[in-house]
Specification:
The radius of gyration is 20 Å and the shape is globular. 49% of the residues lie in helices and 13% in strands. The strands form two sheets. The chain has a seven-stranded parallel β-sheet, with helices on both faces. Strands 7-8 form a two-stranded parallel ribbon. The chain has two domains: 219 residues, NAD(P)-binding Rossmann-like Domain (Rossmann fold, 3-Layer(aba) Sandwich); 57 residues, no CATH class. It is built from eleven helices and nine strands. The longest helix has 27 residues.
Length: 319
């Protein structure tokens, strides 16, 4: 698929971040879009931005959809067929994702399962719903967003990240198995597995909204407990930090994650689309993703040991 002009793309998680930038770049090329998100205000802003830059004659439709709910996904699929007057699509970007459920032992089960449902079942339900439309095209491509946490199941040897990592490993395995399945049974449909490193997005604030958590400034003492636990795991004396100081630290962390990332969402989207054009099934996004991939392949047994962080600079990644 060398050009996206006049193709039809479905993008989940299009309200912010990489999903929004994928939509904007595709619209500018004249690709028709059916974008979805669970946060309607964010989604409306993405549609406005796409409409402002879209090539003439490009249709952009928006759909509020919780991808962890199969009935909503099926309604989304039906709406795409009706509003785009089509029996096929060319591109499916399974991009929606949230964080949360860091500890299988200590996090609330509701939070753990909500995170897993969005990050894995969102990919599964959308793939099930839209696969017939991809098969009906003459040129189809499914693009599944995993993460470096799809091959490294933590945020460091002292930072658990279980729900997100479990889901992203599932996305990776599903995508790799589809590679063979599609080659055998539908060779006109391709698959790409996207594994971003640190990309500047609003995943932190969006995660809090979707889990129903207040903004950092409004977190109460009980809600601050997991953040204190995280500090303690990092070797900090959390008991010496006041609630107010901790709230400010959480907000600063989210701001820095967005604003000081080594790669912007715009750059990440460009890398992804270039990978799809080149029909690459494995798309690592960011120098940190490449470096971490090399480090783990070099010594997988050591990947979860403390000395592993000390070796990361040897692979071009700051510890």
């Amino acid at each position: 698929m060398k050009t996206f002009k006049q193709k039809i793309a479905v993008i989940t998680g299009a309200g912010t971040g990489m999903g929004r930038e994928l939509a904007r770049q595709l619209a500018a090329e004249g690709c028709h879009l059916a974008i979805c998100d669970v946060l309607d205000d964010n989604l409306a802003e993405t549609k406005r931005l796409c409409d402002d830059t879209a090539a003439a004659g490009t249709l952009v439709t928006m759909h509020v959809c919780d991808v962890s709910d199969e009935s909503q996904v099926l309604s989304y699929c039906e709406a795409v067929k009706q509003q785009h007057h089509t029996d096929h699509i060319n591109l499916l970007f399974n991009n929606a994702g949230i964080g949360g459920g860091d500890s299988f032992l200590l996090s609330e089960r509701k939070e753990w399962e909500r995170t897993f449902a969005v990050d894995w079942f969102g990919v599964y339900y959308c793939s099930r719903a839209f696969m017939p439309l991809l098969l009906a095209s003459s040129d189809g491509h499914i693009v599944n967003t995993s993460s470096v946490n799809g091959f490294w199941a933590c945020l460091g040897p002292n930072v658990s990240h279980t729900a997100y990592s479990t889901a992203k490993f599932a996305v990776k395995g599903f995508s790799e198995s589809l590679l063979v399945d599609l080659r055998l049974n539908a060779p006109h449909v391709k698959v790409s597995l996207v594994m971003p490193g640190h990309v500047g997005t609003n995943i932190g604030p969006n995660t809090m909204k979707i889990h129903g958590s207040p903004i950092p400034a409004d977190l109460d003492r009980e809600q601050l407990v997991p953040y204190r636990r995280w500090l303690e795991n990092q070797g900090h004396a959390a008991e010496n930090i006041s609630d107010a100081e901790l709230r400010a630290m959480i907000q600063q962390y989210m701001d820095d994650f967005m604003n000081n990332a080594p790669l912007t969402a715009v750059q990440a989207a460009t890398i992804i689309l270039d990978g799809v054009r080149a029909n690459r099934w494995r798309i690592l996004v960011g120098n940190d993703a490449h470096a971490l991939d090399r480090a783990i392949r070099d010594d997988p047994e050591a990947a979860y040991d403390l000395p592993f962080l000390e070796r990361l600079p040897d692979f071009g990644l700051s510890g």
